[in-house]
Design goal:
The structure is a single chain. The protein contains 7 helices and no strands. By secondary structure, the chain is mostly helical. Helix 1 crosses helix 2 and helix 2 packs across helix 3. The chain is elongated and about 90 Å long. InterPro entries: PLAC_motif_containing. Keywords: Membrane, Transmembrane, Transmembrane helix.
Length: about 190
């Protein structure tokens, strides 16, 4: 196979990009074109929980359910906090399994309290989350359940049910809303 003679001043072709240094530099004295990066987003303000830890008895139905079957309450909370990526049944079953094997399901549920706090900007920290769940698991679950209800979630229909209900509400509002602007001549 014939190959033409190569120029000895050029490097051989290897398929890799080669950079050549040049002595040309460009400068500008125009200060009006300086770039200022946008300001970082402001963090969410930390707010108080909508109900207290010991307000369990204000909602006796949820209090009794949590006392006798905390796995159901936890499963409902986990489904909403996970935004539907885990189901109520799966989370509740895992909670029960951890409880049966280790007798410390509070170690699992405290992580969901932390996740919920971060999502909604609620007051607290990881240490208090673990202490609250270890010392008073039923009260902690009831408080989280009430918080999500107070934020507009129907805990009995799960994440997907809430999304469907809200999207149906938006669609109904759009269908029944009067036109924004009407022609004056008609």
């Amino acid at each position: 196979m014939y190959q033409p003679a190569s120029d000895p001043t050029k490097p051989p072709a290897t398929g890799f990009p080669v950079s050549y240094s040049t002595s040309t530099t460009f400068t500008t004295n125009d200060t009006s074109s300086s770039y200022t990066p946008p300001a970082p987003p402001q963090p969410k303000p930390i707010i108080e929980w909508s109900t207290g830890l010991c307000d369990c008895f204000s909602d006796s139905g949820n209090c009794c359910l949590t006392w006798w079957c905390p796995c159901i309450t936890f499963g409902r909370i986990a489904e909403i906090v996970d935004r539907g990526s885990s189901s109520c049944g799966t989370s509740g079953a895992l909670y029960t399994l951890i409880c049966c094997v280790t007798c410390c399901s509070c170690l699992y549920s405290c992580f969901y309290r932390s996740k919920m706090r971060r999502q909604h900007g609620l007051k607290g920290n990881g240490c208090t989350d673990c202490l609250i769940h270890c010392c008073c698991e039923p009260c902690a679950l009831c408080q989280e359940y009430r918080e999500l209800e107070n934020r507009g979630f129907d805990m009995t229909i799960g994440w997907h049910g809430n999304v469907e209900q809200r999207s149906r509400g938006v669609a109904m509002t759009a269908l029944t809303a009067p036109p924004a602007e009407q022609d004056m001549n008609s």
